[in-house]
Amino acid sequence: MGKIQTRMGDGYGIEMAEGEVREDLEEGTKEAAERAEVPTLTDDELRHLFEIFKSPDRTVGVERGKEVILSYDSGSTKIKRAHISVSKIQSLQIFERAFGADTLELAHIDYSFKPVKPIVVFEKPIMEQALLITISPLFYGAMPNLGLYSQPDGPCPNPGDLLPQGKLSEARASYEEAVEHAVKDMVYVGSEMYEAGADGINFDTTAAAGDAEFLAALRAVETLKKKHPEMCIEMGMASEFVLGMHGEVTYDGVRLAGLYPHDQLKLAERAGVTIFGPAINIVTNKSLPWNLARAITFTKACSEKSHIPVHADLGMGVGGVPLAITPPVDAVSRASKATVEIARLDGL
Question: Which of 113, 61, 106 is nearest to 88 (CA)?
Fold first, then answer.
């Protein structure tokens, strides 16, 4: 059998025999299917995925006519992280006019709703000016980031201190108090930026702090949609599995701890989310064929049940893309092509 050039989940380049790639693809889809209780990829889908990895080309692309929308998170801060000295508005222009971005996103460098609240008065005129000189839909984005509400920086006792002491009820009460604070901040910032002209609001890396954070985001979305029925809200998740940090919180009668993407999607739809972004974490000591087959299995089950557009999270460490500061283009392009053509998404 021939050899295939691919990578590990951390981006390290490796060479695998064709049989090894096929075996990893099968094991990856089985692992995801067993965890989430969803179907594995079909033989035809696994064959198509194998051919994508087998291609000798450094980069690959979707077939003509299968192109999808690309939405971006934290666009105005990524240029700054690359140490390029331009303003937020100039960053958005670079994304639109140099990178050809389909959507844009204005964001504060501390990418969370809580720190945006006191400076939202300064973000609004930037949004207004950016809208005047850009054409693509312009979102305002931030993370729910429930951890910021814990002491010493936040108002609530730190569950991370309480849980090791066995103070479970106190830790849960702290999470519940933090939810109330977070919902108020997200609704306030979302309303202010939408009323300033934003085409949508992006809740990014949702549920990174577990089930209580997911609850806060869902409740904030529900409130915002009641207040602004036409608001476009994108929700990108932090992981394929909602951690049960609280363990008992529910939304619409559904326990949030332990939900996988296809069930996360159902609640996001009920809350009023417009675009949903499942996030499948990379396993760094497994090959990319294993990781990508696993990611697509989760994502396909999600898109098949969706009544709203699904934009899978693909990037550093999610969606079958290596966990590296600058993900290699051969891996990114294969993950993009495979996810679009097999999971049949609306965007990335």
Answer: 106
Mean pLDDT rounded to a whole number for the chain: 95
- In the block, tokens 């109330």 appear at 180
On the question of a cis peptide bond just before residue 152, with omega within 30 degrees of 0, the verdict is yes
Q: Is the residue at 348 inside a domain?
A: no
Q: Which pTM does this prediction carry?
A: 0.95
Q: 66 lies in a domain?
A: yes
286, 9 contact by CB (below 8 A): yes
Single-letter amino acid, residue 207 = A
Distance CA 234, CA 251 (A): 18
The percent helix, strand, coil of the chain (3-state, each to 5) is: 50, 15, 35
Radius of gyration of the chain (CA): 20
- 3-state DSSP assignment of residue 148: helix
> Among residues of the chain, what percentage have pLDDT more than 90?
91
Please tell me what DSSP assigns to residue 272.
Answer: T
Residue 222 reports pLDDT greater than 80:
yes
Question: How many whole angstroms separate alpha carbon 248 and alpha carbon 309?
Answer: 29
3-state secondary structure of 147: helix
In angstroms, rounded to a whole number, what is the distance separating the alpha carbons of residues 161 and 145? 18
At 206 the pLDDT is: 98
CATH number at residue 238: 3.20.20
Place of tokens 């839909």: 137
Q: Give the C-alpha separation, 338 to 50, whole Å.
A: 10
In a domain, 61, yes or no: yes
> Closest by alpha carbon to 303, among 277, 280, 271, 281?
277
Whole domain around residue 309: which residue ranges? 3-343
For 241, the 3-state DSSP assignment is coil
